[in-house]
Amino acid sequence: MMYWIVFALFTTAETITDMLLSWFPFYFELKIAFVIWLLSPYTKGSSVLYRKFVHPTLSNKETEIDEYITQAKDRSYETMMRFGKRGLNIAATAAVTAATKGQGVLSEKLRSFSMQDLTLIQNEDELQLDGTDDTHTAATLPRTRKSLKVMTLV
């Protein structure tokens, strides 16, 4: 872990030094040598830097870091609650809008279906009275009368 913490700090510092010192002779070679020194198990460069600089700084600033983390946690909770409420409001508005628009379309569809069913039933009754329709059996007649009762209720 010491290596990765020191390497992360090196990477952060590297972005600034690359802009400022890239013109310096042997800059990139020195940078490679420094990374090898950090990695090497013989020199233990990362543990030396961690113990001399990073750990004492973190120990001195521990309470400030903890307070900052607590503040960030509280802010993130408040932000998530605010965005969550906003998202739920948008979803509820969209659902109500879709329901109101869909209700009109649904009622039109039901009305058109019911009118077609009634005209079909009237035509069937007229054909049956004339005796010209022999395609309907006795089993279909109760179903059409039942649908007529349902349609009159709607």
Mean pLDDT: 76
Q: First CA to last CA: what distance?
A: 73 Å
Number of domains: 2
Beta-strand percentage range: under 5%
- Which structural category do the helix and sheet elements fall into? mainly alpha
Please tally the β strands and state the result: 0
Q: Strand-and-helix sequence, N→C? A: HHHHH
Q: What integer value in Å does the Rg equal?
A: 40 Å
Percent helix range: over 70%
Profile the largest sheet: none
Summarize the structure.
With 154 residues, this protein is mainly α.
What does this structure look like?
Pfam families: TB2_DP1_HVA22 (PF03134). With 154 residues, the protein is an all-alpha fold. It has 2 domains: 2-98, no CATH class; 104-153, no CATH class. The chain is 86% helix and 0% strand. The protein is built from 5 helices and no strands. The chain has helices spanning 2-21, 27-39, 45-60, 62-130, 140-153. α1 runs antiparallel to α2 (27-39), α1 crosses α3 and α4 (62-130) crosses α5.
Present the secondary structure layout:
Elements: H1 2-21, H2 27-39, H3 45-60, H4 62-130, H5 140-153
Membrane topology: Multi-pass membrane protein
Transmembrane segments: 23-42
Family: Belongs to the DP1 family.
Which descriptors apply to this entry?
transmembrane helix; 154 residues; 5 helices; mainly alpha; 2 domains
